[in-house]
Amino acid sequence: MDDGLYLSDLRYLLKCAKLAGITKVRSMVAGDASMLPANVWAEIESAICKVYPASQWLGYTHDHSAKHLQGTHVASCDSKAQSIDAMSNGWNVFQVIAPIAEPIPTGAALCPASKEFKFKRGFEIGCNGCPMACTGDSSKRWRVIPRHASGDASRKAAASRRGEVLKNEKGQVKGLYAKVGA
């Protein structure tokens, strides 16, 4: 045991995962890595990065003051202003936008795992095959995804029936809502 962590167990799990063909690491499925002391997180991150480089991580944090996470995590943002502020402080961002015809900000990219992307492009790219990578070391700084919480499906279906589309600030169509029954 190292400082209360079983790093040897973590290293063993990482080797098994790699041998099993797992290609991505999801940081903190529940919770936020910023809740751990920075020195503790550094040990965990170091162990994981020996097997999975930062480009193979999926990591989000709501604590934009946790600069020690910038190499492996993106700032999770709820507004355009919050996204711009996070980017000005060195973060790559993943912003949740309203599911009903909120414009995609100029310079942002629609998440390829979203249903809106699938409807627009005719295919979906899951997290494992995504070229944008939701990591701190990605070249894509600003990603957006329409909110997909409980109840949003019915709001999206209603928006689709009304013919609503996702547009960027220049008025260009950047995504469509799936038609009911499609």
Note the main attributes of this structure.
five-stranded parallel beta sheet; two-stranded parallel ribbon; 9 strands; 5 helices; disordered C terminus; alpha/beta; 28% helix; 182 residues
From the N-terminal CA to the C-terminal CA, the straight-line distance is: 53 Å
Shape verdict? globular
Using only C-alpha atoms, the radius of gyration works out to: 18 Å
Q: Element order, helices and strands?
A: HEHEEEHEEHEHEE
Q: Roughly what is the average pLDDT, rounded to an integer?
A: 78
Show unreliable segments.
176-182
Can you tell me about this structure?
With 182 residues, the protein is an alpha/beta fold. It has one domain. The chain contains five helices and nine strands; from the N terminus they run H-E-H-E-E-E-H-E-E-H-E-H-E-E. It has helices spanning 7-19, 38-49, 80-88, 115-121, 152-161; strands at 25-26, 57-58, 60-61, 74-77, 93-97, 109-110, 142-146, 165-167, 173-176. Strands 3-4-5-7-6 form a five-stranded parallel sheet, covered by helices on one side. Helix 1 runs parallel beside helix 2 (38-49). The longest helix has 13 residues, at 7-19. The termini are far apart. Residues 176-182 have low confidence and may be disordered.
